[in-house]
Amino acid sequence: MSGLRVADSFLVANGKVRGLDLHRERFVRSCADAGVPAERFWDEQVGRLPGFGRWFPRFELRDSGELAVQLRPAPTTGGRVRVAVHEGADPRTMPRVKGPDLELLGKLRESAPYRADEILLLDADGTVLEAAYAALAWWEDDTLCFPPSDRPLLPSVTAQLLRQIARTQGVPVEEHPITPEALQNTTEAWLINALHGIRPIHAWQDSPIDPLPNSHSTPWQSHLESLTTRLP
């Protein structure tokens, strides 16, 4: 894979997508920070996306300065998630920009111990930032929680949408750091991203699968789906 300066992906299912304006904002802003205007390119290419089938297109600004789109079939979504914890410092070079570290993160996830589906990255103080390919959210009783936004996190579109839903539903939201050990003892923890929406963590490291019979994820995934809009 050629080097990427910026990338952004989202699920398109039969011509519908979640948070398209937020994805546009993130991609255009990151491209502008790299000195490349991308508004017109984004709008033209979004208008060419298929209105049928399931796709996971990736918008790219490459190291060469070229803007491009990869139209990729969408992988299977959903399912149980087993996570492992990365031992060592966060290896990313640009954690707030999606693109430069994607190849590194892919290799990190592929080598995760315990055949884990995802691997959690830690900040310098040992608290959880996010996963290689997903943001983190968790429940403490009836409060939806996220890592502090001033930490080195990729701005997550799905996290922004969940915050919107929480406001609509009158659900309290908090930000605070949390260790992996404390996270395992919360009411429920989620990995969230544009492809899957919400996936609850069902297993940690080599622990057995927890069925999570009272998971919040099903109604909240429905709330997310209700936010899909038609491609322009």
Give a structural overview.
This protein is of the alpha+beta class and 232 residues long. The protein has 2 domains: 4-70, Aminotransferase class 4, branched-chain amino acid transferase, N-terminal domain (D-amino Acid Aminotransferase, Chain A, domain 1, 2-Layer Sandwich), CATH 3.30.470.10; 81-229, D-amino Acid Aminotransferase, subunit A, domain 2 (D-amino Acid Aminotransferase, Chain A, domain 2). It is built from 6 helices and 15 strands. The protein has helices at 20-33, 39-46, 102-110, 157-169, 180-184, 217-225; strands at residues 4-9, 12-13, 16-17, 54-55, 58-62, 67-70, 81-85, 118-122, 128-131, 135-140, 143-146, 173-175, 188-193, 197-204, 229-230. The strands form 4 sheets. It has an 8-stranded mixed beta sheet with strand order 9-8-7-14-13-10-11-12. Helix 3 links the parallel strand 7 (81-85) and strand 8. The longest helix has 14 residues, at 20-33. The radius of gyration is 17 Å and the shape is globular. It starts with a strand and ends with a strand. The mean pLDDT is 96.
Largest sheet descriptor: 8 strands, mixed
Q: What is the 3D form?
A: globular
How many E strands? 15
β-strand amount: 25-35%
The neighbouring-strand order within the major sheet is: 9-8-7-14-13-10-11-12
Give a short synopsis of this structure.
The chain is α+β, with helices and mostly antiparallel strands. Helix content is 25%, strand content 28%. A hairpin with a 3-residue loop joins β13 (188-193) and β14.
